[in-house]
Design goal:
Length: 122
């Protein structure tokens, strides 16, 4: 199962697979029964994936998709409501990514999102 999660998350780095991967991941991450087991297993892999996505040579399309994916995890969308578990997961993923990859984070499109998330947590 962990290998499968790794493959899904790594495919976020590829333009041709990014959107499809996001739709699949959202099915797992928003599923009320699976959520509590899927999120902890994905956290470290997603942090590593963000460090790959936010390298300078990665397609900006993938970076935009990653941000949109994280925004959806935090705020939900017209089909799915976010939970406190998802909001905390997303916050901790970005926070860890920023700490472990400060230069990549500072040049990423995630700063405004993180500022919004922190403001919502107050």
């Amino acid at each position: 199962m962990i290998k499968m999660k790794s493959h899904f998350l790594i495919s976020l780095c590829y333009r041709d697979f990014s959107q499809t991967t996001i739709r699949i991941l959202q099915k797992f991450m928003f599923h009320p029964v699976l959520q509590s087991s899927v999120l902890p297993d994905c956290q470290s892999i997603l942090i590593k994936t963000l460090s790959l996505i936010y390298q300078s040579e990665t397609d900006s399309y993938c970076k935009d998709n990653a941000k949109e994916f994280l925004e959806t995890l935090h705020s939900g969308d017209e089909e799915q409501q976010s939970t406190d578990l998802l909001k905390d997961f997303m916050y901790h993923v970005i926070k860890a990514f920023a700490k472990e990859n400060q230069e990549a984070y500072l040049s990423s499109n995630l700063i405004d999102l993180m500022n919004y998330v922190v403001e919502q947590r107050r």
